[in-house]
Amino acid sequence: METTKIGIIGCGTISAAYLKIAADWHILEVDAVADLYPEKARERAEEFDVRRVMTVEGLLADDDIDIVVNLTIPNAHYQVALAALEAGKAVYNEKPLTIDRSEGAALVEKARTSGCLLGGAPDTFLGGGIQTCRKLIDDGWIGEPVAASAFMMGHGHESWHPDPAFYYKLGGGPMFDMGPYYLTALVNLLGPVARVTGMARKTFPQRTITSEPKYGEIIDVEVPTHVAGVMEFASGAVGTITTSFDVWGGRLPFIEIYGTEGSLAVPNPNTFGGPVLIKGGMRGGDWQEVPLSHPNNENSRSIGVADMAYALRSGRKHRASGELTYHVLDLMHAFHEAQQNAAFVDLGSTCERPAALPVGLAPGHLEP
To answer: How far is the C-alpha of 10 from the C-alpha of 15, rounded, in Å?
Structure first.
């Protein structure tokens, strides 16, 4: 199959993972990089042997680029993605799709009317770990899913991140930072969510940076830093999720799915591999590890871009779609809205449950 040329806009830290791993996908060819700071783009091009360094405007206007991979800061996701769609290109955003809910909806609508593909991270749900869980659920190993629980418990970024202030501003916080991994995995496993409620708090009004190079600087916290939500899935299953930057750790599972015939322990949704554990109900017995049924268990970031490229060539639907990424964005806003209004919030969005990946894929390939 003919390769698909991609152009990366935004050459910050995350771009290194995309540039390194994109080379593993036979359908992808990284043709150009761009950044508001040209020296960053030149450094990445030299590091990963990218053919062209361009301006953002030049990359968007280039007829050879099929997919724009938008790795800019979240505040710029909407503007860059909209410009790419207006240029007639497919666009894949880093998470979240946008910060603002209405802008996310506008991107979905623009993609629909323009006939261009829109999608975004995270693509960890396409890794071998969560795809194995998906197969176990689809094959009936735990019966009908009844409930789910998810936990992301930590103390924030100021002790290790070089520039952690964003994580405590609009568009940050534990739900917007890590929630996309957990919620995307849950929607992949159980389908879309119909309504939510939730509670949240901001425990520490200020944070002191203890990492370099901004050691000692004070961050004013503007967003909730402990968010607990309850979800009613369209399927009828009930889920709970807690994301926190306010605790010093916990001994809790990443994700568990509970069914009428057994329970399933899902691996860290911020990774691509295992372990996957299952416990039978009527069959009894203790938790048992299940061999992974799918490949891509190491860092496979850009698998979502590769899947989009196959969709461009074949006309099938891509899995990390704009509808999925917008539904997750809508969910994250809904938890905060539920707290503010002390109410249940009906989701205004929905999406199809992404198609499961087939077994037996060769390394570096997805099905057409």
So the answer is: 7
Q: Which residues of 154-174 are buried (b: 16+ CB within 10 A; e: fewer)?
A: bebbbeeeeebbbbbbebbbb
3-state DSSP assignment of residue 171: coil
Q: CB-based burial of residue 361 (10 Å sphere; 0-12 exposed, 13-18 middle, 19+ buried)? A: middle
- Tell me the CATH number of domain 125-290, given options 3.40.50.2300, 3.30.360.10, 3.40.50.300, 3.40.50.1980: 3.30.360.10
Q: Which helix (H) or strand (E) holds 259?
A: strand 255-259
| CA dihedral (336, 340, 343, 347) positive or negative | negative
Structure tokens at 200: 């949240």
Residue in this structure with the two tokens 């957990």, named with its chain if needed: 182
As a whole number, mean pLDDT of residues 249-276 equals 97
- H/E element holding 201? strand 193-201
- Tens digits of residue pLDDT in 107-163: 999 999 999 999 999 999 999 999 999 999 999 999 999 999 999 999 999 999 989
Per-residue model confidence (pLDDT) at position 118: 98
Task: Tell how far CA 56 is from the center of its chain.
Answer: 24
- Domain residue extents for the chain: 4-120, 125-290
Percentage helix, strand, coil for the chain under 3-state DSSP, each rounded to 5 = 35, 25, 45
Q: Give alpha helix (H) positions in the chain.
A: 13-22, 38-48, 56-61, 77-86, 101-114, 128-138, 173-190, 303-314, 322-341
In the chain the first and final C-alpha atoms are separated, in Å, by 9
Residue 234's SS3 state is coil
pTM (2 d.p.): 0.96
Structure tokens at 57: 């405007």
Average pLDDT over residues 273-284: 86
